[in-house]
Amino acid sequence: MIFSRNPKFTIKIFAYLFALVMITGYSIFQARHLISGPQLSIDSPTQGETIKNSILEVAGSAHNISEIQLNDKQIYTEKDGRFKEKLMLSPGYNIMKVSVRDKFGREIHKTLEVVFDNNEIQQQARLNYKNN
């Protein structure tokens, strides 16, 4: 066999194969974020939450994205991928949609449903009105 007759050649072949495996492995490791696609996590509010204030802050994080939208309006992330955006809620049932897209066009959409309970605000307004 050729490997047993020429040890220098055998070492050279194994060195090239080892280098090729290392370069390929490192390339795949570095490309893992491109391969996995966009990621979206919403921290607040939680799904189905009842909100007492008309102003709501939607917060979360997004990674491997080129664009993020809240209710079809572009918003921006911090360098670490975190985002915060304030919304004005309508009384009752509210639906919000958060969408992210990566540079290859892959998209993820998450829908949040919350309820704005403005009974306390209405009661306070009635009390203020009666007192004036």
Topology:
Blueprint: H1 2-5, H2 7-30, H3 32-36, E1 39-44, E2 50-51, E3 55-63, E4 67-70, E5 73-75, E6 82-88, E7 92-101, E8 107-116, H4 119-131
Parallel strand pairs: 2-8
Antiparallel strand pairs: 1-3, 3-6, 4-5, 4-7, 7-8
What does the model show?
The chain is an alpha+beta fold and 132 residues long. The protein contains 4 helices and 8 strands, in the order H-H-H-E-E-E-E-E-E-E-E-H. The longest helix has 24 residues, at 7-30. The N and C termini lie far apart (104 Å). 13% of the residues are buried.
Strand order of the largest sheet: 2-8-7-4-5
According to CATH, the fold-level topology of the largest domain is: Immunoglobulin-like
How many domains would you count in the coordinates? Answer: 2
Q: Beta fraction of the residues?
A: 35-45%
Query: How many strand units?
Result: 8
User: Gap between N and C termini, in Å?
Assistant: 104 Å
Main sheet: strands, sense, barrel: 5 strands, mixed
- Helix share bin: 25-40%
As a whole number of angstroms, the C-alpha radius of gyration is 27 Å
Per DSSP, the total helix count is 4
What's the shape? rod-shaped
CATH class of the largest domain: Mainly Beta
Let me know the CATH homologous superfamily of the largest domain. Immunoglobulins
Keywords for this entry:
single chain, 132 residues, alpha+beta, Immunoglobulin-like, 2 domains, five-stranded mixed β-sheet, three-stranded antiparallel β-sheet, 4 helices, 8 strands, 35% helix, 39% strand
Q: What would you say about this model in short?
A:
The chain is of the alpha+beta class and 132 residues long. The chain has helices spanning 2-5, 7-30, 32-36, 119-131; strands spanning 39-44, 50-51, 55-63, 67-70, 73-75, 82-88, 92-101, 107-116. It has two domains: 2-30; 38-120, Immunoglobulins (Immunoglobulin-like, Sandwich).
